[in-house]
Amino acid sequence: MSTTPQQNADELAWPAPEKRRSIGKDTRRIDGPAKVTGMARYSHDVRLPGMVYARFVTCALPAAAIELDLTAALAVPGVVEVVRVVGDSTLYLGQPIAAVTAETPEAAAEGARAVAVTLTELPWAVTAEQSLAPDAPKVNPRGNIGRERTQEEGDIEAGFAASDAIVEATYTIPIQHHSCLETHGMVVDYRGGDSAVIHGSVQGTFALLDGPPDSLGLDASMVEGDVQHMGGGFGSKFGIGIEGKIACEIAKRLGRPVHLMMDRETEFHASGNRSGNSVTIKAGASKDGVIQALVADSNKLGGLSGGSYAGLPYVYSVANFSSTSRSVYTNTDGNRAFRAPGHPQASFGMESLIDELAYAIGKDLVEMRLANLPDDEQHSVWRRQLRRVADEIGWNEHPYKSAPGPHKVEGGREYVEGIGFGISVWGGGGYPSCEVEARVDREGSLIVSVGVQDLGTGSRTLVAMVAADEFGLEVHQVTARIGNTRFGNGVMSGGSVTTASLAPAVKDASNKMRAALIALVATNTGKDASALSFADGGVIVGDGLRVSWRDACALCPAGGLTTHGVFQKALQSSGVHGAQAARVRIDLVTGEVKVLKMVAIHDMGIALNPMAVRSQIQGAMVQAVSYALFEERLIDADLGIALNPNFESYRLANVHSIPEMTVIIDDEDGRGVIGIGEPPAIPGIGAIAGAIQNACGVRVRDMPLSPTKILIGLEELRRS
Amino acid sequence: MKDFEYIQPETVEAATAALATKENADWATAKARVFGGGQDLLGEMKTGLEEPSALVNVKWIQGLGGVTQADGGNLKFGATTKLRALEGLFSSGAFQVLSEAAKTIGSPQIRTQATLAGNLCQRPRCLYYRRPEAKCLKKGGDECFAYGGYNKFNAILGGGPSYIVHPSDMGPALMALDAQIEISDSKGTTEMALDDFFTLPSDGDVTRENVLRPDQVVISLRTGLDTPSEWRSTYLKFQERDGFDFALSAVALSLRVQNGAITDARIVLGGVAPRPWRCREAEQLLLGSMEAASLAKRGAAAADAALLGAEPLEHNAYKVPLTKGLLQRALRQLTA
Amino acid sequence: MLAMSTPISLELSINDDRVRASVPAHWTLLELLRYELGLTGTKQGCDKGDCGACTVLIDGKPQLSCLILAANAEGKKVQTIEGLQPAHRKAGGVGLDPVQDAFDRCGALQCGFCQSGMMLSARALLNENPTPDRTEIRQALSGNLCRCTGYTQIVQAVELAIAESTGAEPESPSWSDGNPWKSTTSLSGKNGGDA
Questions:
Q1: For the CA atoms of chain B, what is the radius of gyration?
Q2: Is the domain of A301 the same as that of A365?
Q3: Which of A190, B194, B272, B332 has fewest C-beta within 10 Å?
Q4: CA distance A694 to chain B (A)
Q5: Tens digit of pLDDT for each residue in C118-154?
């Protein structure tokens, strides 16, 4: 029986803090035990009878005509088939050119090495300089420069005339890899016949229905997609990719289950990245700290794709500016979404510029920022947040507020500390997408189902928490079923939209179920439904009477009760402000940057699970440490070969790199739920770069902010 | 990786006999490889840089691991001694440099499996060497791509025609203790100074980093200090990523202190040259009193002398101040 | 001298089970575990020793199963993530191994792909040194990469496991006003215990 009682608008609101049970409180993951025991099954772990394993052969050059001799590969014991997966030529470095399928992953890897590839080099460009050169090869048939956009406001000339100091600088940021611990790929369970199940490491369960049915030649209704656990996406796993398409094609040809997970090197080559950026800025400020004029010109480096850039001025209010950006195409893998696309790049340039202007006019770094954040409704949040992180990081006691600290080893001093700041903006609102089913049976089971996936952010737990709170149940009394296309539609996890899209729909379904159960109890007890309410896992009937959860559920028809929930706009909101501060220690002998402490404050309406929120924010801060200090994709510009497609020389921060982190979840401001995945990933790199200059006077304008560059900077300062 | 024959001898004789084929007398034709911890070799085999048809595992040979006393207070370390075992052995004195160096290598997992001889014999980490598609000098090609390419991690001393840096941490540490290396083949056993074991690209075979032949097995390493009780030592390594990385620069420093004065010294650099790089002239500048101001002055002079011949490439000039700074810091710490 | 030709017959102990297997000489222990024995809790992250996701304990010590030949594990005692809880129970414990339990309670995981290796590195440390300090914890975990969590909760989880095993009150993490481990609003320790 399906019930959709009249919506009571008054009831569909998040309860006041004192009435919340699990929401708003630290809540452990319901899939924690499965994960810590190794029982959680990722796509990479799926094992099926008769399954074959596939691997890619990739192109070692940025562009080449491809000839393949498959004889040797086919002769490798265990190899089942080898197919070409590219046309006559390749377009980007590391592009898959052949897929080798074998009975074991070892044989597939060996077969991949045995494919004899003859590359005839075609003209290519892997750097912006090469792409913009007069005689550059055409990377993109429509030209190597993509759409150019200029935004202008005010009177720039007047702004410069009113400036007391002018800074001109170019800030560059390299391409960053998502570096998901589980590589991209899927297992296609197709054994002939008219149906298939696809286990994919993707950020949207329903992406598994976008393409595979066609590749398999099956009716979409006969294909099931499954994403129970996945090992990280960060924006790179929206679609099924070439790996998904090829896996389906192999399965179709062989009529056998196919396991195609990229190896780590292919993952580096061909699973997307965060675009690099180079921005040249000229800006002026008056002595009071106000930025009077800003002219910015930026190249977005997104390989074959357009790249992303949030534009300047970022967040701060500048009256007179002109900001131009354009895509510059190269023969490298296209960029994809990556945790706040375009924002960290813009933030790095903006915060760096503010620091440099502040020092040029001798202004306190915090005061300088406040001078460019008007005291209006929107900007006042950042003003408050900035002051808060400044307090927490110890700015008041800090000796170097408007001029950098010392850069010389003398008097036994080998280390010096500095502080930097950054602010951020993001949306994080939801939209109509999730279709949630709540189901109760006579035995008292409450099962809440929706196809949405859990990237590790805790959405599975969130489903159970929101439902449990609606009835006053414990979280573990709710069964949350997610990550399968047999359930109702789910939102893709990207843009921090999941929580704000999902939680309202879960609450809606639960709320309807609550009304349905109350109606049953009302009928049964002869009371007026409006007098009944749920509390502590039961229905309060009045007169001291209480119907337990189980007794209430026992009133259900034999088939149980089912309700359906959809997006409820009023339960969510959008708009995340944020400020972060970093304190670093520079080793003046080695140039080593140790990030000692970071403080983050972000507002997100109701933080449904603070434990998960802190984890998101801390994880984002450490990603910023890693991005700022270590990460850089390297390609030899003369040879066109990849130099570091591995975790040895593409360095990720490890446990030694982490600062002490203070996470401040900003006070609730009456708004509903908002996603928090991306915003905390924005301000950290600018804050760290600023802290480095604040500590020792070295402004590194090109990331990563390596000790090697700081050492050279220190040498230059000592000489000057 | 490619399949191979797995040979597991129980004695050194059996191992060298298995290696003593005609083709194995020369690296160009060798098909068998000595296999210890495998922490480098398996990686090379996975990327196809090495494709041996046989592995001779020496790890289970009795007596090839472990630490024993040698002449005059010196120590002898079996070739298959695990780095993990060295980590906690010495917290002061002449051999401290060994534990300090061991601790900086790889990750705990790698140190559990990696062996002392393997650390000395590991191949370069040069970004170009590690890419199978770059047929560089080290791989029998005719160009060192790092020279005119991305050379942030490459040599500033002793480079040419190849500009790799030697990745070993135990090499500089052992050389700072005047170590001897014992090597066996089917004809017998020889011992030589570890200083003579390592080679420069300009010395001879540019595709190798030492004189070991493919039919030879490293047996042991023995320190060779005169009166170790009078020595103290330290290892300072700077790596881009703390906790798990190769050296951008490293300094192994040992000092003999008699009657409050430095009477002998060893300075061996890692991460800056194609082999562990001993700085003999700089060592001499350290000799003398332990008085802080004088020592600081001599330390600065020694640092300048050590890097006198440095010829930085486009992206690695930072190694000059870095190495000078590390050497002086090591001296301060060791004489504090 | 024992010369072997492929495939190699092996006998080893995996999670206290005597296992006989026949694998090619060039198979790694990781391949034996994941593709022959179906022990997929051991993850394949980079397959070249850089990420630590494939960490297992061999004779109690942490090693990279992707850089060990299966043949080299002959006669050894291998422990994978699947064996942690059974070993804990066999030793008289209840619920999860304290390391697993602490990781769960501290939320020391997001996607979870690095977790098996991370927990085994922690377990190896505690086996050797029941009361390591924070520096020693960091050193022990330095070979395990995590892209999601920022490591802080991971370090806190290890510290919680240490504190509880010594009967000490765990230090309250910096983000907490009270003692979160005693929180009554979170799932209780017992419920999370049985996978």
A1: 19
A2: yes
A3: B332
A4: 21
A5: 999 999 999 999 999 999 999 999 999 999 999 999 9
Tell me the pLDDT band of C173, cut-offs 50, 70 and 90.
Answer: low
**C172 confidence band (pLDDT: 50, 70, 90):** low
Query: Range of A449's domain?
Result: 17-40+430-571
In a 10 Å sphere around its CB, with 0-12 CB exposed, 13-18 middle and 19+ buried, how is residue A388 labelled? middle
Same domain, A36 and A117: no
Residues A255 and A372 in one domain: no
Is the ipTM higher than 0.90? The answer is yes
Is the pLDDT at A5 greater than 60? The verdict is: no
With respect to residue A164, please indicate whether it lies within any of the assigned structural domains.
no
**Which two tokens mark A421?**
């700041």
Do residues A607 and A592 share a domain? Answer: yes
Question: Alpha-carbon distance C51 to C146, whole Å?
Answer: 8
Question: Residue B305's pLDDT is what?
Answer: 98
| Interface residue A656 vs chain B (CB under 8 A) | yes
- Are B218 and B182 in contact by the 8 Å Cβ rule? The answer is yes
Q: Counting one residue from A and one from C, how many pairs have CB atoms under 8 Å apart?
A: 214
3-state DSSP assignment of residue A313 = coil
Give C64's contacts in chain B (Cβ within 8 Å): 39, 109-110, 113
Residue A1 sits at the chain B interface (C-beta within 8 Å): no
Distance of alpha carbon A460 from alpha carbon A437, whole angstroms: 14
Question: How much is the average pLDDT of A76-90?
Answer: 97
Cβ-based interface (< 8 Å): residues of C facing B: 1-6, 8, 24-26, 28, 47-49, 52, 55, 58, 61-64, 67-69, 71-72, 121, 124, 138-140, 142-144
What type of residue is B40? Answer: D
Is B243 in contact with A654 (Cβ distance < 8 A)? yes
Instruction: Please report, as a single letter, which amino acid is at residue A9.
Output: A
Same domain, A254 and A282: no
Q: Which two tokens stand for residue C115?
A: 């977790």
Q: How far is A232 from chain C (nearest CA, A)?
A: 6
Q: Is the dihedral of CA A241, C41, A257, A196 positive or negative?
A: negative
Instruction: Provide the residue type at A664 as one letter.
Output: I
Q: What is residue A36's predicted lDDT score, i.e. its pLDDT? A: 97
For A98-141, what is each residue's pLDDT tens digit? 999 999 999 999 999 999 999 999 999 999 999 999 999 999 99
Count up the domains in chain A and report the number.
3
CA distances from A180 to A176, A440, A711, C145 (A): 12, 37, 32, 10
- Among C105, C108, C93, C111, which Cα is nearest to C151's? C108
With H, G, I as helix, E, B as strand and everything else as coil, classify residue A677: coil
- Is the torsion defined by CA of B32, B36, B39, B40 positive or negative? negative
pLDDT score recorded for residue A4: 41
Average pLDDT rounded to a whole number, residues B92-114:
98
| pLDDT over 50 at A142, yes or no | yes
Shared-domain flag, residues A453 and A481: yes
Pairing of strands C77-79, C8-14: parallel
In 3-state terms, what secondary structure has residue A385?
Answer: helix
Per CB-CB distance under 8 Å, the chain C contacts of A29 are 104, 107, 109
Please answer yes or no on whether A232 and C27 come within 8 Å at the CB atom. no
Residue C110 structure tokens: 């997001």
> What kind of architecture, by CATH, is found in domain C9-81?
Roll (3.10)
CB contact (8 A) between residue C49 and residue B39: yes
Domain check: are A321 and A443 in the same one? no
- Type of residue at A90: T
Q: Which of B148, B240, B321 lies nearest to residue A715, judging by beta carbons?
A: B321
> pTM of whole model > 0.80?
yes
B112 to chain C, any CB pair closer than 8 A? The answer is yes
pLDDT above 90 as % of chain B: 97
CATH number of C91-176: 1.10.150.120
Name the minimum distance, in Å, from the CA of C164 to any CA of chain A.
18
SS3 A424: strand
Q: Specify the pLDDT at position C174.
A: 52
